[in-house]
Q: What sequence folds into this?
């Protein structure tokens, strides 16, 4: 989270930058609402630790995911053109991402 927007950098999948001006909403969940919904990764990377890339399910439709598989919490960002689901390695770090986004979007 920086002064102009959200930047996700990873060695496993393509980086993503979302300017605050494109964000319509940010929601924090203790448990990912899509965790028990069937879906597919249409492009991206996944292993026992991470799920990243383009996904599709009945809740979000086509969306982008950058998540640690061991963390149930997530932040869902709705932009002008897409839905992004992300988290950090644990619930506290994920909550911090949410709080920083909310603070910087004021």
A:
């Amino acid at each position: 989270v920086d002064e102009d927007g959200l930047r996700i950098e990873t060695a496993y999948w393509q980086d993503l930058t979302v300017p605050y001006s494109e964000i319509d909403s940010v929601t924090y969940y203790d448990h990912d609402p899509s965790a028990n919904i069937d879906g597919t990764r249409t492009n991206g990377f996944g292993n026992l630790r991470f799920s990243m890339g383009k996904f599709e399910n009945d809740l979000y439709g086509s969306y982008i995911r950058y998540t640690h598989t061991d963390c149930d919490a997530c932040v869902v960002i709705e932009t002008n053109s897409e839905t992004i689901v992300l988290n950090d390695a644990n619930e506290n770090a994920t909550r911090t991402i949410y709080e920083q986004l909310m603070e910087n979007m004021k």
